[in-house]
Amino acid sequence: MISRAFVLLFLFSLANASFVIEEECLNYTVYPVQYELTIIPYITEFSPFFDCQISINVIANAPGVRMIELDAKDLEINFSSIYVMKGNIDIVSRSRPYEYDVKNGKLYIYLAEPLIPYNKNSKINQSYHIKLVYRKKVTEKDEGIFLVKYLDENQQSKYLFTTRLTPNKAKYFFPCFDNPRFEAVFKFRVYVVAKNNVWQYTNTSIVIANEHRKVVNVPKDVIIDYSPSPQVTLNQVGFHYSRFTNILTSSKNDIFMVWAPGYTIHHYNFILMYGQKLMDLIHDYSGVERPILNGPIHLIAVPSDRIDGYEVTSWNLLTNRAHRIAHQEEYTSIKQLETMTFELAQQFCRIWLGNPGEPQRTRWREEWFKEGVATYLAYYFLAQYNNGVSHINHRQPLGSYGLDMKFRAMAVDSHRFTPPLANFNTSLAAEIPVRYKELVTMKTASILWMMENWIGSEKFHNALVKYINSRRGKYISLQDFTEAMDRDTIECTHRFSNGSRLLARWPRRAAPPLVLLRVLRDRPLNAIQLTQRRFSFTADHRQNTDFLIPISYIVQNNEDCINCYQPRFTIGSQSYTFGENLNNGWIILNRNASGYYRVNYDETTWKLIAKTLEENHEAIDELNRAQIVNDVFALYVAGDISLPLAMEILNYLDKEHNAVVWKAAISGFDLLKTEENGCNMTRHLYKEWQEFMKRKIAPTYNKLSNSHDYNTRLSRSSVVNFACFLKYQPCIQNLKYMYEQYRRGNMRLDPDFREAIYYMLLQDNSYFGANRLNDFEEDDRRRAEHRLKEENRFIMKTPVGVPRPMPIIMSTTTESTTLIASPIMTHQAGSSSTLIPSLFIAVPPLLFALR
Predict the structure, then answer these.
(1) What global pTM score does this model have?
(2) H or E segment at 743?
(3) Which of 218, 505, 746, 797 has the highest local Cβ count within 10 Å?
(4) Which residues contact 434 (CB under 8 A, 6 or more apart)?
(5) With contact defined as beta carbons under 8 Å apart, do 420 and 443 qualify?
(6) CATH superfamily of the 1-240 domain
């Protein structure tokens, strides 16, 4: 046993020498090397618990240590079982053996002699074993490890144990050194108790290590020994104990297993097949015969609202709330399906980028950077999956997914107190606050998308996968990544700056930049002036910035365009001027909308863009139209453009039926509720915007397709939600008709419209019906309730203001004046307009969707 301990310590010192040196903030003088846990669970309806024998192999980090401090919260410790073994000798003090601070969850073990500091060159025994026995009573409200109740096929109550140890909750599961920087090996032994009339029989025990062997003892308990785990942090430990069954699939060397109650297992066929497709895409992308994970990936459907999404550090024991991974045609909405597929893609990418189960461990010095790369790749694989791409030779660009992650990032990043990404350099992924999760994931992914478009998609992806494959078993850092990208993507004839310079400043600066474009049109070769400053919703914090911004552009009349459709140039802290013959047309920056910045043009250019959008909006690419629409909302809220100019640019939206553009418009409209703004928002102004957008959404709503393909369903759901939010009466009447038919039992409720219906019911304080909502329905109800609360909170905090004076238009007819003032017109004055009746009770256009 002692020789085994020395081998373990020697391997530990080799594997972790650099890691221990780097972590100067360790706050314990004792370091855990290995935990051994023998768990005997007893599940019953009245008092579920488990007994555990634990042995912790430790070394001392400092001389003179005579007290060991363990974290142990809500555990019933058998104090007579506490030992600290130095070989075969117990060195716990007899006069003062221990203290247990129940309130703070601290167990102090006092020693009769000081611990010997660890020295890898010493030949004497320097390892110690802390041993104790405890009992943990498990309830549904516990932290760390908790009880989950569900109904089986006979509607009988069943229970399971499952863990969620992020953040800092391992102490509720077992006594430990609860420092998120400590890594140790874990060795589990679990008893599956024999069938009897007292305890619920279970047959599923899963931990973070692979099963080694099973034996059966005299009472017919099944004893499962697991192989020692890799070195992991406490938040990577996992344990699950239930009576579940599984389905599995494989892809090359990978096995993917989904666990759920037996009678529901067919609901998880979709996520199983999707997981297999994801693994195929990752294998094809990586180009090497290397498994994503050594051993199976277990995905467990936990029927509990305590779980919402994956733990970012999990790699082989993934848990998620059951309805977040189940697919039931009659209940799963298209938005829930979109969330489901993205979350699993993101988690698989985290695993592929580096996990403790690798033969050679890959570590990321900046875990926020790993989160961003995983998010970028998740969207990349999702774009391939939803477009049916099966090989990298037919690579599908990010497109609308790139815009989505950029707008989500900017919505968080534009607020004054949002920190730069580099502030998280030393943060573990599990420690990043929830309010900054989207900043870290979406902003980093957006910057990578900008870099991809700057370098070129083919070169970028080839260099990225080459770099990841080359760093197996090594450290990955942002600096090393950018230098490697330079080596693999920069050609000697390339006349533009390299990727490392491009990327270097973005993590150190907060907020997206705003590029100001002015065109001097008083000369044949027009001069275009570019400057940059920080984008801010208020007049504060608008200082000049020094981002290295890649500039791409398109021009309206491109016959003589010098730099169109090729890599352009970058701008920095200094203003930049270049010449271009615009031929009295517009110029639009940020071609393909991949740059992480907003643009404000001079008024003449804005009006030229507005004119083209009104006359022939498809002359501008959909991604650029989406960027323009979203920018206009943001610039108006910031007070950078006037209300008449903003509405003039957006006036064309009644002709716009593109899903990508409307998604950008909807996210842009949400910016109007920004509390700190430069537009002096009032309730009257907000109401005017609502009426304006109500007129613009009407034609798109009335032309909704009845197709059931993925993208159409997603677009249709967003439009209906937005129309309902704006209180567009034809939409409201259709939703009321659907819900009434559903209550009468004539038709089921279409899940794609469920959130809109719940929002309508909550807004009217209407009756939800006697039937209890299932998890899918409850998820939509919570989202609708949150949106209504946010809307009401915004209204209450916003001053009333006064109505704007209506413009006076001289006209020979009464009709044109009426068109301006009416709140229910489909178009504004000066265009072909038709009145929409205030009560449109007819069933079309949404009845087609009631499948």
Answers:
(1) 0.90
(2) helix 729-743
(3) 505
(4) none
(5) no
(6) tricorn interacting facor f3 domain (2.60.40.1730)
